[in-house]
Give the backbone structure.
Amino acid sequence: MLIELRIRNFAIIESLTLPLAPGFNVLSGETGAGKSIIVGALGLLLGERASADLIRTGQERATVEGVFDVSDRPALRAVLDEHGLEAEDSLIVLKREVAAGRARAWANGSSVTAAVLAQIGRQLVDLHGQHEAQSLLDPESQRAILDAFGDAAADAASVRDTFHAVSDIRREIADLDTRARDAQRRADYLRHVAKEIEEARLTEGEDARLEEEANRLENADELRALAGEALAHLSAEEQGALTRLGALERVLHQLQRLDPSLAGLQESYDAAYYALDAMARELERYQGDVDLDPQRLAQVRARRELLFDLVKKYGPALADVMQQGREARRELDLVDSSGLELRTLRERLEAGEQALGKAAAALTKRRKAAGARLARAVDEVLPDLGMPDGHLEVALRPRGEVGAEGAEDVEFLVSLNVGHDARPLARVASGGELSRVMLALKTILARLDHVPTLVFDEVDAGIGGTVGLQVSDTMRRVAASHQVFAITHLPQIAARAHHHIRVSKDAAGGVTTAGIAVLEGEARVVEIARMLGGDPDSAVSRAHARELLKSAAAPAAPPDVPRGGAGRPRRRP
């Protein structure tokens, strides 16, 4: 549940801390005082789009922070773990900051994206206002509501997974068929390519090795002469380096005899001598190996010419030529093997389509039963919301073929007046009626809904009197299993709340700002009197307000709420 909402420099709000409690919370105040701004700030905290226009005039940034108790939300803990977050003392603090050109978000002090913030927020708060109620007009939302009510999540997931598996097989068949037809049309060309490249018997890096060999064969005379000259410098009897090193060794022996500390020079001498001796042997071997071989040179040149032609046709590199040969062979193999592969895939497709049909039929059966039950349940609630003749009908419209969502589209039809046929919700209900239909559905789905906090923004639009009392009683019943937070103008709804907060607007230093006050005792009586439309200072208006507060059907405070105050819930032992 939402324990506290902190807002700073957001629209007309300079600094505001909103304490909330379990049960039924209401927010009241004059029109334009900032009630909907508070709901907007909560929406921003839950991941809605950020804009620099939200920043209070003259300030650089706006921040919204919410403290949530998640002690009884194991599913949310799994979401937190997924993103490397954890609830500290069963609390999670979400924060959103908006500055010019950028927005940032945090969860328990760790930076997160707006998408992650929204994912967490959806587990914590379900926000419904005039705009959100419009989601009832969306067929997808209607289908989701029906499936949630009918406990059809597993059946819907089975249909969706099977449909995607069947779609994958269909794509495989289409792709294989297309490639096989293309290969068949190009078969003669592919055979030529594969034959030409395979007969060349290419090896990786062969072009570089041939170039090196050709260079050696073409310059054999010069290479032998240079090797002989280098060998002479090393091994000539009088001036060769190895000969002269013999004289050096004699001098070193004399030095070491006179000064034993120079014994280490012998090791250096030995290393130099053996290195030069090895070099001489290598040059001698090389000189013997290098030979002018016109026949081999001709072979190398012919081979290089062949590789050059292949690279020119299939290049730009020898590796590309070899790849072209492999691809040509694979395509030719496809011509021969595609028939068997297509038969196998079509058998899999047939089995998948049968499985999809069975899964969709099971989902349809569950939806039909759930639709009838949901219609009866809503019909029982609508009179309590000021629509005594209201009737909901859940229509299942068969599709031409089974899709990822099943074999039918779901459409909510309503009749709100006697003698009128049920028609699509979008063509019948006003904004206020939509909000009440949404409230009816939330009342019914409350036992299934795991989101702890429900927010209703002006769900009382277009109603009053007895209907207002009925709506408030319904919201209070929902508050038995959820934390409910409602923004209202109706005294009937405000009087039924467990926790009442008033928003007011003042001008400080020439700048408008909004503030809040938690109402108790006589202060709450005065606010209810104002909402009733009378003079809040009038004894008659206050008496009427006290009577309305007294007539609340349920106790003034729900279980677990400290008497006489809002704030944090009592800690569970």
